[in-house]
Amino acid sequence: MLTGEIYKPWLEKKDPLARMAYWLTYVVAAIGIGASVVRCWFAAKSVNMMTGNLCLILDDEFNGDSLDTDIWDYEVTMGGFGNNEFEMTTDSSNNTFLRDGYLYILPTLTSDVIGRDAIMNGYTYNITGCTTGGTNDTSTCGAVSNITGGTVINPVMSARINTKKSRSIRYGRVEIKAKNPNGDWLWPALWMLPVNNTYGPWPMSGEIDIMESRGNGLSYADQGSNYVQGSLNWGPLTWLNEVWRTTGWWTERRTSFASGFHTYAMEWDENFIRIYVDSRLHGMLQVSFNVPFFDRGDFPPVVTNGSQQVVLENPWASGSKSTPFDIPFYLIMNVAVGGTNGWFPDNVGDKPWFNTATDAMQQFAEEQDKWAATWPEDDYSRALVVDYVKMWQKC
User: Transmembrane residues, as ranges (predicted)?
Assistant: First the structure.
């Protein structure tokens, strides 16, 4: 071989294996590249995308001095809604306020207002500005603490606001930029309910959870503050919710969603719902409306509620494949605390109450020194802080 000449083994008649290996390497590489291109093309083609136009119906950047009550309504109650939550929700500026272009939904201690002893025994508290009904029609306007009877005044004050009277969409897009709160047993949520219970009471007419999380730290064993979850709640009876079939989440391994702002988005039309954080690549949930929800549930003809046998009927029989998610929904933002519906399961973490206990709120209140110590003192770290809210209606 001459100096500087490139050796070409495939030209050597005496080494056919080397020549075969050379061409085989390139053929395999070409097949791999081609397969990747085909796979990417089919994957991109299969992604559901909204069709038609979107019309902006809400763009609130919270730049004023106070919450715009032409858009937002407060839900003021001590009833705990359908989850038996431990907070009361108020319209107080202590719990909802604007600061530096952000909306704060801030949980505070009731003991700072009426004292610790009053929470536990011998005190009657009536909430100011109580709204009747609430989104789940469970509003309660007062409570009496009685240590013997196991009843206490709600130990936390927080807030819950909604757009039911002002803004709703039937198909469209929602985008919210927010920072979650830190603190054990805090439950921030950005979610939607139907304006009218067209197909029956919850969950028969559906619920869309754009973001739910927990304030417990990264070491919490059942998805702490480094997880956010999106889901659809639906079911043919008030006590039969198939949310487990349509739930997903996104997680950050080393950071918390309470450490900075993230953008939560929901896209929704006749064919699908997609929920994600920051990017479509960070998808929490995508549900294609390719199967009617009654079929998706794979329900038996008869179900049991205690000792009662119930013949199961399809409440969505007259609808489409997207029913019950084919009616107008409005937006809710809140910070709940605790509750007995299972969002905080028993025997996970240093949980101070049992979900099956009749005095669960009392158990929680008795351990205030422990859980309150995990709540940051500064408002920014303890609050759900919202930068902006945008809603588009498909038009």
Answer: 20-42
pLDDT above 70 as % of the chain: 91
Q: Which amino acid is located at 89 in the chain? A: T
Dihedrals φ, ψ of 141, to 5°? -100, -5
Give 377's contacts (C-beta < 8 A, 6+ positions apart): none
Domains of the chain: 9-44 (no CATH), 53-394 (2.60.120.200)
389, 176 contact by CB (below 8 A):
yes
Cis peptide before 236, with omega less than 30 degrees from 0?
Answer: no
* Contact predicate 209/341, CB 8 Å: no
- Which amino acid would we find at residue 346? D
SS3 54: strand
Give residue 21's pLDDT: 72
The whole-model pTM stands at 0.89
- Phi-psi region at 30: left, alpha or beta (left = phi > 0; alpha = psi -120 to 50): alpha
Angle at 241 between CA 360 and CA 221, to 5 degrees: 55
Q: Which two tokens stand for residue 257?
A: 């969603």
How far is residue 243 CA from its own chain's centroid? 12
Q: For residues 80 and 89, what is the distance between their CA atoms, to the nearest angstrom?
A: 9
pLDDT tier for residue 30 given thresholds of 50, 70 and 90: confident
3-class DSSP assignment, residue 30 = helix
Cβ-contact 263, 277 below 8 angstroms: yes
* Nearest alpha carbon to residue 257 among 340, 190, 353: 190
Buried b (16+ CB within 10 A) or exposed e, 369-381: eebeebbeeeeee
Q: Tell me the pLDDT of the chain averaged across its residues.
A: 92
What sign does the CA torsion over 60, 63, 67, 69 have? negative
